[in-house]
Amino acid sequence: MNAPVRSNLLQSQSAGSFGNQPFKVYTQRDLDRIAPLAALPDDIRFAMQVVSTVLPFRVNQYVIDELIDWNKVPDDPIFQLTFPQRDMLEARHFDLIADLIRGEADPALLQEAVAQVRADLNPHPAGQMELNMPSDAAGNRLDGIQHKYRETVLFFPSQGQTCHAYCTFCFRWAQFVGDKTLRIASSEAATLFAYLRAHPEVTDLLITGGDPMVMKTKHLAAYLEPLLAPEFEHLQTVRIGTKALTFWPHRFLGAEDADDLLRLLERLHRAGKHVALMAHFNHWRELETPAVREAIRRLRDTGAQIRCQGPLVAHINDDPGVWQRMWNTQVSLGLVPYYMFVERDTGARHYFEVPLVRAWEIYREAIQSVSGLGRTARGPSMSACPGKVEIQGVTEVAGKRVFVLRFIQARNPEWVQQPFFARFDPKATWFDQLRPAFGADKFFFES
């Protein structure tokens, strides 16, 4: 690593008494080693085994010890966020896998059934593989890069395609199940740099995953430091998508290369790049521990900005009071509330989805109860195939009850901020279930 930009950085950012906490992780094969689970009934623990055979499971000791209230399990929101539940699989899928496990089926037969179930769970929503991945001049697809919106490129470094723990609702769950045909990843920094040189319209780079904060700082630096060269002057913002503040805030405290990471972010900031950590929070409890608050303080001292986003999901945060408290807490800590998303149509969506009208009601009630600084949170937003569609409200036009919608971001920039209407449907949970209002055959962007 290069020398720090200013010598007093670490003196002003002491991690205090947190030290180098050991990172202890558990996956499906370790379920029997997670001590608090022993108190749960056998049927619940067997259900965890079945569901985690299909959907990825990973948790760590910090989440177990610091975030979950085991007296409230199974209803505890962080338990629901991190541990598999029976109803995350449809009954037919659950019974198929459960019967094979009980019958000690041949591993190849079990894996074949698991692959069939995963294929039914829409592993790549919103045209991720078909529409978002660009090609080079020779027509070769550039694995590990997505370019859906003109100004923003997403990059998936291969070293960052895991997380400190997995969210049970994750829309990128297919990255973590060991099937290379489902993964989006690149180990070629040169591919990224060449693409950015060829696209001067790109102002924002989002390093995503998985979670880039699982990477060693030296690997992250190999992707980020070259962006300080004059040829990348058009790149104004470096975003890093992460849930490390929730799942492992010690990454920014006593981890072996935590200080190097902070120096890296500060160098980017002082060189003129806007550095934004796109932090993923789902519940105010994730913001309550001393470790996360100290990690936030250290990160903000580098000049990086922390923006907060997360989906509205049943069993975890489908309550306006949760969002109100979470947004107020974020503002008090100097964070920027950014997005409330609608749960994507993938994975265990039937377990987590909330009707769109209810999502809007929760957003409206929560946003009414925060100050102007908290009203930077946009939503409810659906990251659908044509773009990010915001539900602006429900109203009556010409005697018809309708959803009022607009694009916050879109494949075609001309669509952005154009209001449009969909027929009101109290049961709709995703954009593709909506139909144009007033007798139209198509929405304006479909032609």
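^ that was protein a. below is b, sequence first then the tokens
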Amino acid sequence: MALRGCPLMTEVRVSVEGRESVLKILGMHCVACSVTVQRALMSVRGVRWVEVSLASNEARVVAGPGLDYGELLRAVRRVGYDVYRETMYISVLGARPEDAAAVERAARLWGVFNASFNSATAVLYVEYNPLEVGPGDLVKSLEEAGFRVGEVSRSGVDVDVDRRAVEKEARELARRLALAVPITAVLLSSMFTPVPPLVQLVLAAVVQFYSGWGFLSGAYRAFRNKTANMDTLVALGTFSTFLYSVYAAFSSGHTYFEGSAAVITFVLAGRYIESLMKLRAGDAVKRLAQMTPLRARLRTETGLVEVDSSQVKPGQLVEVREGEGIPVDGYVEEGVGYVDESAFTGEPMPVEKKTGDLVLAATLLTRGFLVVRTTRSGTHTYLAEVIKLVRQAQNARLPIQRLVDRVAGVFAWIVIAAAVATFVGWAMRGAAPEHALLFTASVLVVACPCALGLATPLAVAVGLARRGEGATCEET
């Protein structure tokens, strides 16, 4: 994958002074969700600026030095959403109960949500944002504070945070959709083949309360936060239709169970497609992140030791053999070899490297043998900076997207007002209450602006992903 000329990297700018952080937000479905998360983060003491991207499910936060990082997590969870985080257990050798406060203080780096030291077992538990901090940073901080670190245990560390978060959402949507589709097909067939109303009620209830549970819970969460979103419209429309159909089933009236089930199924299908688009949009970042070797062959006084490449420190020597990827940025200390740098320069022919020449992580030693003196590793390499810039570009909002977000944010209230006016209007004309309710539900469902809120950010994200698929950064 080549990264040719990246103008997008020069366009992403933050005018607010402070330290920047990127959070992966879980549970957002529409623009109103992103606005709610943005308000929650802005309410945190020390936060100066926030931008939330629905397309990538990320929030960019700029904060002052006095920020309590854990407050970001608590603020997001207070409004019903969550932040993707990973956990880690670090054995602190020789630490005593009276050292607990010092251990926790040393572990509270930028990016750590929670650090708790168990003095009985001498194990430190850490919840952290993998986009900001890693095990190597925590180990280094503890060692600088004078503690000896033993075993480090992590819960399934993966370089691709984006894909795991979205894949989890896609799997959940697929499960609910797999049940909704056949049931909806049966209910739709009842328009041509008689199906007992009570059977329709049971089938529709499964779709309404299992497949459509996300809409009901999302509407409740919005109500609790005194907002309205796309979930509110879908939940009000389908639930009112379902309740009317339950009444009709027991009063020998005409039921519309197939209507509520079909709307839930179609919106679920749309959200599933959206999640697949998000996965595709994140593929460029995934491919970039997977280019760096996870292990490095470190030269020490006692011999060669294989370590996590992120734990290699500046100044240490790393051996790279023919056919291996280079795990760190640095200068050639010994040896001669030919390195494939096409991922960065686009040049198809390997470049000769000898003593004193610069080599970059994620390039490939096609022939020869090199000993590299490390200058940068882990999240500080040139490639890691490229990945960070790609993330920033995916989160950047165009002027048209800001306009769409503002319109979509108030549109839900306009639709609800229109639905109430519809009910009142038909009732004043003498229509039966059940008919007025049916027209009201139609307005809520048909006017749901999910596409309005999501089309622009997804178009931007997919466009950036396509741009990044073949591009290299010759100018940075």
